[in-house]
Amino acid sequence: MAHDKNVVELTEAEARAELERLSEAIARANTAYHTHDAPEISDAEFDALKRRNAEIEARFRDLKRADSPSEQVGATPAQGFSKITHAVRMLSLSNAFDDQDVREFDESIRRYLGRDAALSYSAEPKIDGLSLSLRYENGNLVSAATRGDGETGENVTANAREIADIPQVLEGAPELLEVRGEVYMSHADFAALNARHEERGGKTFANPRNAAAGSLRQLDASITRDRPLRFFAYAWGAISEPLAETQMGAIERLRGLGFQVNPLTRLCHSPDDMIAHYREIEAQRATLGYDIDGVVYKVDDLGLQHRLGFRSTTPRWAIAHKFPAELAWTRLDGIDIQVGRTGALSPVARLAPVTVGGVVVSNATLHNEDYIAGFDSNGEEIRGGKDIRVGDWVQVYRAGDVIPKVADVDLSKRPEDAERYVFPHLCPECGSEAVREEGDAVRRCTGGMICPAQAVEKLKHFVSRKALDIDGLGAKQIEMFYGDEVLPIREPADIFTLQERDEGNLARLKNRDGWGDTSAANLFRAIEEKRDIPLARLIFGLGIRHVGEVAAADLARHYGEWGVMAQALDVARPAAVAEHAADSAAEAERIAAKREGRRAKIADAREAAMAGLEVPVAAQAAWNDLVGTDGIGPVMALSLSDAFANAEERRAIDTLVAHLTPIPPEERATDSPVAGKTVVFTGTLEKMTRAEAKARAEALGAKVSGSVSKKTDLVVAGPGAGSKAKKAVELGVEMIDEDGWLEMIEGL
Q1: In CATH terms, is domain 448-530 a member of 1.10.150.20?
Q2: Where are the chain's structural domains?
Q3: DSSP label at 246?
Q4: Residue 213 to residue 130: CA distance in whole angstroms
Q5: Domain 83-261+272-292, CATH
């Protein structure tokens, strides 16, 4: 596994697997935190998950998933409240974890704006509470909503009216004003609340954040009235007229309207000022009387904020400088091996429970066999070469993975009879050989679909929410049907023959415990409804290694129809085989060079390997078309090709598709003259930065590519345009200058 690797060390395959793991982990954490007010991991660990995800996406841009955490905010609102759609999305913040991150934030702002002049930033404590948006019309509070998923939140208006810090009427406010801030509970009030509950034999809260969230989200507002909630205002959403010209001015305006604003908010004129204020706040953290988990920096000039704009879920003009994570020591009681959907054998530490960052931890990742043995992916020592053994006292670190990781070992406490751990070479689930390919840190079961662990996980993936999403057929039901001797589901196609097999069986599903006429009928109806399935969902649902949601959507858009894609993969197979040979030669060269202490000539090795092979022209063209698709790289293309070329896997896929009608993707349509077109920017842009141009084009529905091909519709060429402009001329692609581009999009 690649959990312990630095991002710069990840291969493309490892990066894809990491992004899939991180997406699932962050989604679970968001639901626990935002929807259930019962966080399962600490803020530091959550931040580290998102940070690692962002770093991998930055290095492997083509691998970004459709369900990427960088494209999501919060979680789906809980049931029980009516919903309010935010007029302006409530976004999250990107994070900084050290001084260098802060300096890079400042540099990124300057690069984007193309300016060297001094910039000022506001800096304020980041309150650890629950985000709330208050809407005022003509000075009157008309609604209050939680963040929810950023677009839709819970209507908690009645509860918000019970918070003393929230004014009901504003004097001198704009006609429309959405005030945003954080609901929190002080340490003293939290302790008093828990003491009262304990006296009455009631439930106590784990921390002030949970107490504040639970108190605000009461269906009975009288309960909220009895809870000591507070509110700090720090931002705004929809507004009919500006509050001020600067962030600090707007905060002062909110104070003048009657809102509580944090007294530790300061104006900083450089990264050094920002870091100094961070240190000052960090030193006061224990005595503030309320929880904070960092400091938020924002570009002070609101005009520049507007120009900087937003990424998909975060503003470019703000960042949260978070406080560091926590560590703890405990005993390693055992090591279990889990087998995943792709056959990866993942070691998991079973720990004597220990509290880390306010959360009780009993499991931790051990990454892979090298990590247990005390080595990294390059064979270099980690932890001073100390291996990990059952019975050891280990240091647990909660800031990197869905479960914490073991960071160190205390050899002074190692039991005398502790034995070096031997990683299994046979799958613990099916007994098949578990092999580790050259250059891969992971050992994988070779059993494929005969391995029950892999088969079950693949089926769970197939029916998951972002794949087929069959109502009534979730993970629990898949496990039941997989082990059923009468109505088994062993591969995806079995799902679509379930009703037919049930009707021809004496042991009908409706007669079993937990099922009845209605539930069985509902399941069969839900299955029938999925026979017509969007092509992208079908591709994603197959669970092919490296093919996530984004890639599935890219493939669906590129090929349009299932048959076209399948035929293209078949035609391209000889080229894929050649690519495998080239990869093997390149890997052999890398290993040899490493052993000999020289630099690997991987490109030469690949070229030599390819030169010795004869690939049909049609196969090479089909392969080039596949890897030339935006978002599809060689590693993913090889994985696709291998899946379709594997006889047993192809049989299962073809059998499944025979029961389905894949629906081609809809064409994207807007009124923009560049909507649906592929645009390439090249050369020097003089009136906007490249980042601004790309963001603007995408906002108008265009697809921005980094290379010119036959599929390119428009090239915007500035001074210094070189090979891309030349290729555009050769291919007859329309080319305009920056002024022409600005004229084209003027007024849009």
Answers
A1: yes
A2: 83-261+272-292, 448-530, 536-663, 678-745
A3: B
A4: 6
A5: 3.30.470.30
Helix-then-strand count for the chain, H and E: 26, 24
CA dist., res. 33 & res. 36, Å (int):
6
Highest mean pLDDT among 1-15, 123-137, 344-358, 612-626: 123-137
64 in catalytic set: no
C-alpha to C-alpha distance for 666 and 686, rounded to whole angstroms: 36
Burial pattern 475-514, b for ≥16 Cβ within 10 A else e, equals eebbeebbeeeebebbbbbbbbebbeebeeeeeebeeeee
Residues 6+ apart with CB under 8 A from 545: 13, 16, 17, 342, 639, 643
Find all residues with CB under 8 Å of 408, minimum gap 6, and list them: 383, 386, 394, 395
Task: Please compute Rg for the chain using Cα positions.
Answer: 28
Q: Which residues contact 513 (CB under 8 A, 6 or more apart)?
A: none
CA angle 66, 67, 73 (to 5 degrees): 120
Between 295 and 401, the higher pLDDT residue: 295
Q: Under DSSP, is residue 563 helix (H, G, I), strand (E, B) or coil?
A: helix
Report which of 46, 77, 53 is spatially closest to residue 548, judged by C-alpha positions: 53
Strand partners, 351: 332
Distance CA 439, CA 591 (A): 9
Q: Is the distance from CB of 174 to CB of 183 less than 8 angstroms?
A: no
DSSP for 586-631? HHHHHHHHHHHTS---HHHHHHHHHHT----HHHHHHHHHHHTSTT
Looking at residue 385, what DSSP letter applies? G
pTM exceeds cut of 0.90: no
Q: State how far the Cα of 45 lies from the Cα of 40, in Å rounded to an integer.
A: 10
What stretches of 139-283 adopt beta strand conformation (E)? Answer: 140-146, 152-154, 176-184, 230-239, 266-268
**N-term to C-term CA, the chain:** 47
- Banded model confidence at residue 36, pLDDT cuts 50, 70, 90: low
The CA distance from 460 to 473, in Å, is: 9
360-397 exposure pattern, b = at least 16 Cβ within 10 A, e = fewer = ebeebbbbbbbbbbbbbbeeeebbeebbbbeebbbbbb
Class of CATH domain 678-745: alpha beta
pLDDT score recorded for residue 357: 63
SS3 351: strand
Q: Cα–Cα distance between 288 and 282 in angstroms, integer?
A: 10
Query: Virtual CA dihedral for 351, 353, 355, 358, nearest 10 degrees?
Result: 110
Q: Please identify which of the residues 5, 50, 64, 126 carries the catalytic annotation.
A: 126
**pLDDT by residue (tens digit) across 466-522?**
899 999 999 899 999 998 988 999 999 999 999 999 988 877 898 888 888 999 999
Distance CA 18, CA 55 (A): 11
